[in-house]
Amino acid sequence: MLRIDVQKPIHGSSGYMTLFVNQQVDKGDFVVIMGESGAGKSTLLRIIAGLEEAKGKMTMGNAVWQDAHKRLPIQQRNVGFVFQDYALFDNMSVKENLLFVNADVPLAEELLEMMEITQIAQRNVTTLSGGQKQRVALARALMRRPKLLLMDEPLSALDPRIRRKLSRQILALHERFGMTTLMVSHDVTEAKAMATRLWFVESAEVHEYPLSMLDALYEEE
After folding, report:
1. DSSP letters along 15-37, please?
2. How far, CA to CA in Å, does 162 sit from each of 70, 130, 218?
3. Are the C-beta atoms of 166 and 13 separated by less than 8 Å?
4. Rg for the chain, CA atoms, rounded
5. 26-42 pLDDT, tens per residue?
6. Could you give phi then psi for residue 198, rounded to 5 degrees?
């Protein structure tokens, strides 16, 4: 179980405010995080990963990731992070990007096959389409077999057909590796198809709502 009780001042869409998060995530959950632009959704993921500082406490199971005395770096949190801009190593091939993270060749080959990118494994990542790069980024994020997968709008730059296919692949990876997943999204259809739980960031606070309220929440916006 991931337990988050943190606060962080941010400069959001409404000016300076303090982001308050008091939530927990159970093992195997697929949490979709939604809300208006500039509300702090990406910042929340970065706090969980250990990429940004915040006040408060965060635990994963029996392990303390953050409290008043320490803050574990991302390398010690066993987290996979998929960024909006892919963040691939441009001087490497697809397979080299994976093996740079973890020299586990069988795992790399399994992920390449699951993401349907085995045929481009030797290509330099700069030659790939956006959809292919996103698949590589997902595969690379799983090379450490993370307990927790964080994704910041991983499908936003893709066309609808590729988005649907990749969303199915993400769910397959989530189930295959028994992960807990948090994903920022602005797409209601995407959230309905993937989420087991919904967080909505509004007025600098993270609230949980039933998935059945998705349409109503966006009508209010």
Report:
1. EEEEEEEEEEE-TT-EEEEEEST
2. 41, 10, 24
3. no
4. 17
5. 999 999 999 888 888 99
6. -125, 125
